[in-house]
Design goal:
The chain has 377 residues and is α/β, with parallel strands linked by helices. 39% of the residues lie in helices and 14% in strands. The protein has a 7-stranded mixed sheet with strand order 3-2-1-4-7-6-8. The chain has a 3-stranded mixed sheet with strand order 5-12-9. Strand 2, helix 4 and strand 3 form a beta-alpha-beta unit. Helix 6 crosses helix 9, helix 8 packs parallel to helix 10 and helix 9 crosses helix 10. The protein starts with 6 loop residues before the first helix and ends in an 11-residue tail after the last helix. The relative contact order is 0.13.
Length: 377
């Protein structure tokens, strides 16, 4: 325009433009933050945690400015991360408990499940006979909304096969008799299981149809007894059912425990049917040996395809197989939960009675039953 600009005019103009740019940046940051809140996207710190835990980010703690230590989680920035929202839909927990089970152990199983698992989850206990009306067991089942189904095998089948094996006939028949399909099924032992979280939380996205099996401690933690061929009981179970050829085929693999298995509905039906067909093919077959052979021979994956078979290491923090864990590696956090070396609480503690002097007394006290009619002092 022909107007001479002074140095002060240039400086003022520059700061004016920079101020406008800064305002625009602030507005963009606010919009992005609002988008993150609406869509619940992970922050950078959480994304780093998920890289370390790709299978099940729901169980990886959102640490914020804190960190996981061997003993406890020091800071949790988002409390809801401790109990991740379960997937929508209805899930099924299916176990077997005869009338001879200790009520205290049944109480641990049922009360811990109801505390940590979505209330939409149906819990079904298969029993050899109905609970007596007004008995403590009946009151416990009623109070927690648990379905008891009387189901037992024939005398011939009961006499020829181990209870751990013929229970799969009952599990299969129950599932096939259902008129509705559940989103996911958890097959589980009852007597020695306690819940610390919702295991169904890992069944989201591409994992919804998967079949999950859970390994025991690896040789790195357990020593030379960590493989099927070197752990004597598992070695014997495979030999009795599949012979030396079968043992040679899968002997180098890490043991998976048949006490806890979780699956989408379609794969669950295939799995229990395959277990039953194999077990009944030979009276010396035990479910644990069959379970491991089906996994590591590839037969299970071929049978449930296209659903994926996911073999979950102990260190992932879903199921703690206490019997296989050396005592010095059974770590607890400050509120008593059994955790992984990185501080992640296991969703399920299996075989807690093997921790006789540490976790078992805690579980029996935490989920104890009280005498009928007892009152506070």
């Amino acid at each position: 325009t022909g107007k001479n600009l002074t140095c002060g005019d240039v400086t003022t103009s520059l700061f004016s433009r920079l101020g406008g740019l800064a305002t625009a940046v602030v507005i963009l940051l606010l919009v992005w933050n609002h988008y993150l809140v609406l869509h619940n996207l992970p922050d950078a710190n959480e994304r780093g945690i998920r890289k370390q835990c790709p299978l099940q980010p729901a169980f990886c703690p959102k640490l914020g400015c804190g960190k996981a230590t061997r003993n406890h989680l020091e800071v949790v920035s988002k409390p809801e991360a401790r109990h991740p929202a379960p997937p929508k839909g209805k899930n099924l927990i299916l176990g077997m408990a005869t009338q001879n089970i200790e009520l205290a152990r049944l109480g641990v199983f049922l009360r811990s499940a109801r505390e940590f698992v979505s209330p939409r989850t149906l819990i079904v206990i298969l029993s050899d006979q109905p609970s007596a009306p007004n008995s403590t067991r009946a009151q416990l089942l009623d109070a927690l909304g648990v379905q008891e189904t009387v189901s037992w095998v024939s005398g011939e089948l009961e006499s020829q096969y181990h209870p751990n094996s013929h229970r799969w006939v009952l599990l299969r028949d129950f599932l096939k008799g259902q008129k509705v399909q559940y989103d996911a099924v958890l097959f589980t032992d009852v007597r020695d299981v306690a819940f610390q979280g919702d295991p169904f939380a890992i069944m989201t996205g591409q994992n919804k149809s998967s079949l999950f099996v859970f390994r025991e401690a690896s040789p790195a933690r357990r020593g030379e007894d960590g493989t099927i061929a070197t752990e004597q009981r598992n070695k014997g179970w495979v030999l009795k059912c599949f012979g030396q050829e079968g043992l040679d085929e899968i002997g180098r693999e890490v043991v998976s425990c048949a006490g806890v298995t979780m699956s989408g509905w379609s794969a669950a039906l295939v799995y229990v049917s395959l277990m039953v067909d194999t077990i009944l093919s030979k009276s010396t077959c035990i479910d644990q040996g069959v379970h491991n052979y089906l996994i590591y021979s590839g037969k299970l994956q071929r049978s449930i395809s296209p659903a994926p078979l996911v073999v979950v290491p102990l260190e992932q923090g879903v199921v703690a197989q206490v019997q296989s864990m050396p005592p010095q590696s059974v770590w607890r956090n400050k509120i008593g939960q059994i955790v992984t070396p990185t501080g992640i609480p296991y969703a399920i503690v299996h075989q807690y009675d093997r921790s006789k002097h540490r976790y078992q007394p805690q579980a029996l006290q935490q989920f104890q039953l009280f005498p009928s009619g007892s009152v506070l002092p």
